[in-house]
């Protein structure tokens, strides 16, 4: 067969081949012999490689004659037939193979030659085995697959003993306590925990304080002999549990009271937070009034003059004053009982500016602010009532002007309120 770099037949011939069969290029017997017009023969692949440098022209390596490899070279069938009839020996003759025959039969022989080394399919430590010895080797290979007779798990033969000694859950064993045989390894612990009459077990009254241990088949005698002791333990345990229950009931009652007080505190904080979210704390208020049929008196949301500050609200009466058949809207400032009254000074003194905002884009002109002087308003009493606390303007604005399209659109009026110190 051809070896690396040799394209001809580099095989073992029974006798020395005739020189006419030897390729002048690779120097072994020609494979697929071809002949040129100058009469020389070569392996087909050898001369093709030589011609590749000047294809299709080629110089004969023997006599330097130029020829066209496509037109002036042809297969030498007669020589090919003679070469294939040469007698050869198997490549493995040194390993003991006795085969010899014609070259044309060598490849088929090598496909089944028993003296060629092959790999063991089980991946054992012997990497190569003669093909003729493979069956016998695999019958005894330490990596051949075997099945555990107890658990039916499959594994390499070399691991079977270790598996059965250490791992197999179904290997039958004997109990070291009572001597019972045939217990699977996986069930030994269950046997000791539940069934073995000679296993050491604690007294059933362990949780009540009994520390005795004995063999399972003898523990019932212990229970009979120590019945009074066990009853005393039960009584003590019951008393301790009753005491703990009373302590827990007291703690639960205290926690319930604490929870209730915390609930009240939380409710107060929620009310305070809601109050803060609902009120302004900068002494300013933008008041949107939605007019309702038949209603002439409107009260604003409460607001604070600061934080801390006084709590106020505004009151608008659309027909609060009549003078010479002219109706006027009246505006009043009312002091309320506030959250911060204990932190601020009384009486209350301030100037309140009230201004009607124009909503007509063509007449974008607000009414000049109307000042309401609040002087010497006392603090609210415990019931939230302030005597002599009303401050305002009876003639805040003519009613018809207030309800005109300059200030009233879709039955809505906007007012701006600002509190300033006197």
Strand and helix map with partners:
Elements: E1 12-13, E2 33-36, E3 41-43, H1 44-51, E4 57-59, E5 66-68, E6 73-75, H2 77-84, E7 87-89, E8 100-102, H3 106-112, E9 117-118, E10 129-130, H4 134-140, E11 145-147, E12 154-156, H5 160-167, E13 172-173, E14 183-184, H6 188-195, E15 200-202, E16 213-215, H7 219-225, H8 227-278, E17 284-290, E18 297-299, E19 303-304, E20 311-323, E21 326-336, E22 348-356, E23 370-377, E24 391-398, H9 399-402, E25 412-420
Antiparallel strand pairs: 1-7, 2-3, 2-6, 4-5, 7-8, 9-10, 11-12, 13-14, 15-16, 17-25, 18-20, 19-20, 20-21, 21-24, 22-23, 22-25
How does this model look, in words?
With 422 residues, this protein is of the alpha+beta class. Helices cover 26% and strands 27% of the residues. The chain has three domains: 12-112, 2-Layer Sandwich (Herpes Virus-1), CATH 3.30.40; 220-278; 284-420, Apoptosis, Tumor Necrosis Factor Receptor Associated Protein 2, Chain A (Sandwich), CATH 2.60.210. The chain has nine helices and 25 strands. The strands form nine sheets. Strands 18, 19, 20, 21 and 24 form a five-stranded antiparallel sheet that branches. A hairpin with a 4-residue loop joins strand 2 (33-36) and strand 3 (41-43). The protein starts with 11 loop residues before the first strand and ends with a strand.
């Amino acid at each position: 067969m051809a070896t690396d770099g040799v394209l001809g037949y580099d095989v073992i011939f029974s006798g020395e081949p005739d020189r006419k069969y030897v390729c002048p290029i690779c120097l072994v017997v020609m494979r697929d012999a071809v002949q040129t017009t100058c009469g020389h023969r070569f392996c087909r692949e050898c001369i093709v490689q030589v011609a590749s440098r000047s294809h299709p022209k080629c110089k004969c390596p023997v006599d330097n004659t130029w020829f066209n490899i496509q037109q002036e070279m042809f297969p030498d069938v007669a020589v090919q037939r003679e070469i294939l009839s040469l007698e050869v020996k198997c490549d493995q003759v040194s390993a003991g193979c006795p085969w010899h025959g014609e070259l044309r039969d060598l490849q088929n022989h090598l496909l089944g030659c028993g003296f060629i080394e092959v790999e063991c399919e089980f991946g054992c430590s012997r990497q190569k085995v003669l093909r003729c010895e493979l069956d016998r080797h695999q019958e005894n290979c330490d990596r051949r697959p075997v099945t555990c007779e107890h658990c039916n798990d499959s594994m390499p033969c070399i691991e079977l003993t270790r598996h059965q000694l250490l791992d197999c859950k179904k290997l039958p064993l004997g109990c070291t306590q009572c001597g019972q045989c045939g217990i699977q390894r996986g069930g030994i612990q269950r046997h000791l925990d539940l069934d073995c009459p000679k296993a050491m077990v604690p007294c059933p009254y362990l949780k009540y304080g009994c520390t005795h241990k004995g063999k399972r088949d003898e523990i019932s005698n212990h229970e009979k002999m120590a019945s009074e002791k066990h009853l005393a333990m039960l009584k003590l345990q019951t008393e301790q549990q009753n005491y703990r229950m009373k302590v827990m009931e007291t703690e639960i009652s205290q926690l319930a009271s604490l929870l209730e007080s915390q609930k009240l505190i939380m409710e107060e904080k929620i009310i305070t937070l809601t109050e803060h979210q609902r009120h302004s704390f900068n002494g300013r208020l933008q008041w949107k009034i939605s007019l309702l049929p038949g209603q002439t008196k409107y009260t604003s949301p409460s607001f604070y003059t600061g934080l801390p500050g006084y709590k106020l609200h505004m009151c608008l009466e659309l027909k609060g004053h009549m003078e010479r058949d002219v109706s006027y809207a009246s505006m009043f400032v009312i002091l309320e009982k506030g959250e911060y009254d204990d932190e601020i000074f009384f009486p209350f003194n301030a100037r309140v500016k009230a201004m009607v905002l124009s909503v007509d884009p063509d007449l974008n002109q607000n009414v000049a602010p109307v000042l309401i002087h609040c002087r010497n308003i006392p603090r609210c009493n415990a019931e939230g009532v302030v005597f002599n606390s009303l401050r305002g303007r009876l003639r805040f604005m003519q009613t018809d002007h207030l309800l005109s399209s300059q200030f009233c659109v879709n039955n809505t009026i906007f007012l701006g309120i600002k509190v300033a110190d006197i």
